[in-house]
């Protein structure tokens, strides 16, 4: 799960983004600006499709989407 | 995609058109001139049930849950029947950027306290996001909410707020934790009688002149904790969640206005004679009409697709951006074509043709400018 999400972010969302360090599963995505709003919305749409879950708006919060670790924990809790 | 409407939805749209034509088309030109909002028309809409389209039944609405398809069709009908573009615009602003977020993120207390008076027309709500240094780059906002005993102190100001000068409450966004970037923004419901909250006077603008717009100022404005919408830091998700609905419905009313505009223009060019024939017989004119029809129908398809996706609970980022860009730009182009077809009469305010062009320009700015929509589309395409 973690690798699938990291691969998607690296290949689909960060293709042009010159990051100083590699993206890790604990890298803050939205808060640090690695992803912009649209990138985050795309990521949410991706996990919904890939893992067949519905992410209601009230779940789109830092606890669940701060980094890849928290996304995985959130998905596992569903 | 299933674009067929139920009999009940079509009947309801007809009723909305009838209601608007019979009740809402009074002295619009005069009110447009003097920047006058009609609270009476607002209340008539509430009584008919328009604002209720964005509230669950328990809180003044029609259905157990908000029905986006019926609402889209109804708002299209309102735009068709009501010659004043400002009224549907302001209703949509409240319904989809104030009521919907409260319905989605609010607790039972907030829904009971705010959704009911908003749906009944007793209260007017506005949405405060834009600031002097945060427009397209909205999360660069500077308004802060500092945690204090029992609540928060809000400091900062918002600009270009639809209904701001006359609002009874505002759903305002402020930074609760600037270190967290976009996760550090929260939404608050502020009542207009709160100490430290000030609404500016109405500001004159190019179009949509029957709707007040203005600034909101917060100076050590205390907001009790119970008035925070959603969790601390939920501001980003609240904004993102209402965006596609907002684009869908504000544009639905514009689509209705475009349909009426086309019918009105066809009637005019058939009746107006020059060189011994109807001007509609000249290809220069009929080509314009054909272009207007094409813009109308392509906009309609995009609109219904977004409404359908949202009704299925699906994300519609790309489709909503295509819709916002295409429909708002189309309304400008078609409004200009309508004026050209009407000749000098189209240019005179009293003929009520030119007003659409002035109203349409706002559409390529609010809820994300056309440039921003193009950015969204190209970013999703991987550019
Ligand atoms: C009629 C009307 C009603 C409104 N109602 C509300 C309301 O109720 N609540 C609220 O909070 N706000 C409201 N707004 C504000 C509206 O959301 C903003 O005007 C809009 O987001 C643009 O911000 P700005 O005016 O600061 O322009 P800016 O963001 O400064 O943009 C100026 C120009 O730069 C372009 N630009 C900026 N960034 C980029 C980029 N990255 N790429 C390409 N071009 C770019 C823009 O497209 C535009 O052409 C309303 C505006 C209008 C016109």
Automatic annotation (TrEMBL), chain A:
Superkingdom: Bacteria
Carrier domain segment(s): 1-78
Name of the featured protein: Acyl carrier protein
Organism field: Hyunsoonleella flava
Lineage: Bacteria, Pseudomonadati, Bacteroidota, Flavobacteriia, Flavobacteriales
Automatic annotation (TrEMBL), chain B:
InterPro entries listed in its UniProt record: Acyl-CoA_Oxase/DH_mid-dom (IPR006091), Acyl-CoA_Oxase/DH_mid-dom_sf (IPR046373), AcylCo_DH-like_C (IPR036250), AcylCo_DH/oxidase_C (IPR009075), AcylCoA_DH/ox_N (IPR013786), AcylCoA_DH/ox_N_sf (IPR037069), AcylCoA_DH/oxidase_NM_dom_sf (IPR009100)
Residue stretches making up the Acyl-CoA dehydrogenase/oxidase C-terminal domain: 233-380
Entry GO MF terms: acyl-CoA dehydrogenase activity; flavin adenine dinucleotide binding
Pfam families recorded: Acyl-CoA_dh_1, Acyl-CoA_dh_M, Acyl-CoA_dh_N
Alphabetically ordered keywords of this record: FAD, Flavoprotein, Oxidoreductase
Keyword match Oxidoreductase: yes
Positions of the Acyl-CoA oxidase/dehydrogenase middle domain: 128-221
SUPFAM superfamilies in the cross-refs: Acyl-CoA dehydrogenase C-terminal domain-like, Acyl-CoA dehydrogenase NM domain-like
Domain Acyl-CoA dehydrogenase/oxidase N-terminal residue range list: 8-122
Cofactor(s), by name: FAD
Record-stated family: Belongs to the acyl-CoA dehydrogenase family.
UniProt protein name: Acyl-CoA dehydrogenase
């Amino acid at each position: 799960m973690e690798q699938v999400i990291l691969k998607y972010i690296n290949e689909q969302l960060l293709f042009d983004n010159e990051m100083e360090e590699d993206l890790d599963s604990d890298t803050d995505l939205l808060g640090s600006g690695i992803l912009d709003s649209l990138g985050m919305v795309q990521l949410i749409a991706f996990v919904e499709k890939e893992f067949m879950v519905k992410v209601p708006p009230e779940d789109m919060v830092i606890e669940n989407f701060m980094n890849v670790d928290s996304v995985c924990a959130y998905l596992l809790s569903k | 995609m299933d674009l067929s409407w139920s009999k009940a939805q079509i009947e309801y749209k007809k009723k909305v058109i009838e209601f608007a034509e019979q009740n809402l088309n009074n002295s619009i030109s005069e009110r447009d001139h003097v920047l006058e909002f009609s609270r009476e028309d607002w209340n008539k809409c509430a009584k008919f049930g328009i604002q209720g389209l964005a509230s669950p039944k328990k809180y003044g609405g029609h259905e157990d849950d908000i029905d986006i398809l019926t609402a889209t069709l109804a708002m299209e009908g309102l735009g068709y029947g009501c010659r004043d573009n400002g009224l549907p615009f302001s209703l949509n602003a409240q319904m989809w950027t104030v009521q919907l977020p409260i319905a989605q993120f609010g607790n039972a207390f907030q829904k009971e306290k705010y959704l009911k008076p908003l749906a009944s027309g007793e209260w007017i709500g506005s949405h405060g996001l834009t600031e002097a240094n945060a427009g397209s780059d909205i999360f660069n906002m500077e308004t802060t909410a500092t945690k204090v005993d029992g609540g928060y102190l809000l400091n900062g100001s918002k600009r270009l707020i639809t209904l701001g000068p006359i609002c009874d409450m505002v759903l305002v966004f402020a930074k609760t934790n600037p270190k967290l970037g976009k996760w550090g923004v929260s939404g608050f419901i502020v009542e207009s009688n709160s100490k430290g909250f000030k609404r500016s006077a109405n500001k004159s603008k190019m179009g949509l002149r029957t709707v007040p717009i203005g600034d909101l100022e917060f100076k050590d404005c205390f907001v009790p904790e119970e008035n925070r919408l959603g969790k601390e830091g939920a501001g980003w998700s609240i904004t993102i969640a209402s965006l596609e609905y907002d684009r869908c419905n504000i544009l639905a009313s514009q689509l209705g206005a475009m349909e009426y505009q086309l019918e009105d223009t066809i009637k005019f060019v058939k009746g107006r004679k020059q060189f011994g024939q109807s001007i509609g017989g000249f290809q220069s004119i009929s080509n314009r009409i054909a272009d207007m029809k094409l813009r109308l129908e392509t906009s309609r398809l995009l609109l219904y697709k977004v409404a359908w996706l949202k009704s299925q609970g699906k994300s519609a980022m790309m489709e909503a951006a295509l819709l916002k860009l295409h429909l708002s730009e189309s309304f400008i182009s078609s409004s200009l074509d309508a004026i050209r077809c009407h000749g000098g009469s189209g240019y005179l305010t009293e003929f009520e043709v030119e007003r659409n062009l002035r109203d349409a320009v706002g559409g390529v700015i609010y809820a994300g400018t056309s440039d921003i929509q193009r950015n969204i589309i190209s970013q999703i395409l991987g550019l």
